[in-house]
Design brief:
eight-stranded mixed β-sheet; 272 residues; alpha/beta
């Protein structure tokens, strides 16, 4: 039986992934902002909830990540996989209490920060895994990281790609520096989840009209993250770009200099 931590496990793809992991006989720890949603998720799991627990956590801030990691490590000295399904979709210029844009803080930095703090528990696993969900961004070296990490006057069209690609670089870094640990990035696809609540009105209207034509099912979106979480027969670092197709994996091959720069910057920001 494996122990799987799912950040963002109280809604959307994370919630479906939790149900799928439990159905295969494993144990899950769910992180989410809403205590109410977390309790509702556990209740919906039925008898399988005996192998599940929930922790309320705000992963948009350094203090929130540190608090979550402390509470996890207080009760778990071994984690087999950390699955990051958290995400926000916002195009507005706003800042967290750490002075960072929420899109960057949640969709990349929280993954780096939380995983780094949980490495002691991952190192106790025989075959540790770290899996990060992003939008459909293939691993390439053509992104401009000149505005990383502050992204002053945030522009979604300009800054989305470097934020998402930072996940690929972190997967490459983890695989290279942590012996025996396999890291991957998975395209979340286009399921209709709560992430659209903060999207621009035009995007929400378009999604409502075109939804039946463009949306993936939650089950399809969760397939690859769950397979990457539980299976040991894939080579890291890897990227799954087509939801529902686990046999279509792209190796992550990125410039080591850029990767090191991003990791040094992330370490400076978080002290982790």
């Amino acid at each position: 039986m494996k122990t799987i931590l799912i950040a963002g496990g109280n809604s959307g793809i994370g919630r479906q992934a939790a149900a799928d992991v439990l159905a295969r006989g494993h144990r899950v720890i769910l992180l989410g902002r809403s205590q109410t949603k977390g309790e509702a998720t556990l209740a919906a799991l039925g008898a399988a909830a005996e192998r599940a627990s929930f922790l309320a956590a705000d992963l948009s801030t350094h203090d929130g990540v540190r608090d979550a990691a402390r509470r996890i490590l207080d009760t778990h000295d071994l984690l087999d996989t950390v699955l990051h399904t958290t995400g926000v979709l916002t195009t507005e210029e706003s800042r967290t209490t750490d002075g960072l844009h929420p899109f960057f803080a949640v969709n990349y930095l929280s993954r780096y920060h939380l995983t780094q703090l949980l490495l002691p528990a991952l190192r106790s696993s025989r075959q540790p895994r770290v899996v990060m969900m992003t939008a459909a961004v293939a691993p390439t070296d053509d992104a401009d990281f000149g505005r990383f990490p502050r992204f002053e006057s945030f522009s979604f069209g300009r800054d989305r790609k470097p934020v998402q690609l930072a996940n690929h670089h972190y997967a490459a870094h983890l695989t290279r520096t942590e012996s025996g640990l396999a890291a991957a990035v998975v395209n979340a696809g286009s399921p209709k989840t709560d992430i659209l609540r903060a999207a621009p009105a035009s995007m929400r209207i378009g999604a409502k009209i075109l939804g039946p034509l463009i949306f993936d099912s939650i089950e399809k979106a969760a397939h690859n993250p769950v397979e990457a979480t539980l299976r040991d027969d894939w080579e890291a670092p890897g990227y799954w770009g087509k939801p529902g197709s686990f046999d279509q994996r792209t190796p992550i091959t990125l410039g080591a200099t850029t990767t090191q720069h991003l990791m040094d910057t992330s370490r400076t920001l978080t002290d982790a």
